[in-house]
Design a protein that fits this description.
Order of helices and strands: HHHH
Number of domains: 1
Shape: elongated
Helix content: over 70%
Number of helices: 4
Largest sheet: none
């Protein structure tokens, strides 16, 4: 849930600072929440290493877990690019 909180908080701050427009802030917040809701349970499978989980299941868990930070990175990149201009 931290990735969703961080993305929404950063979107709010960046929008109020004028670094991103409303469309980008909303899209990144919704994308982060959607990834959390759709990949929340499969994203925890990479924590099951010591319980004997198979490698493909852990790979699925690692993939979903890695996808959760993508909206945050995209929002940060968009804010940095706008600030650089």
């Amino acid at each position: 849930f931290f990735e969703v909180f961080a993305t929404v908080s950063l979107a709010f701050i960046f929008y109020n600072l004028g670094l991103v427009n409303k469309k980008i802030a909303t899209a990144s917040s919704i994308a982060s929440a959607a990834l959390f809701l759709l990949g929340g349970v499969p994203g925890t499978f990479h924590h099951l290493y010591y319980s004997g989980t198979t490698t493909p299941v852990m790979a699925i868990g690692a993939s979903f877990s890695a996808l959760e930070v993508v909206p945050l990175v995209v929002l940060g990149y968009e804010g940095y690019e706008h600030w650089s201009m």
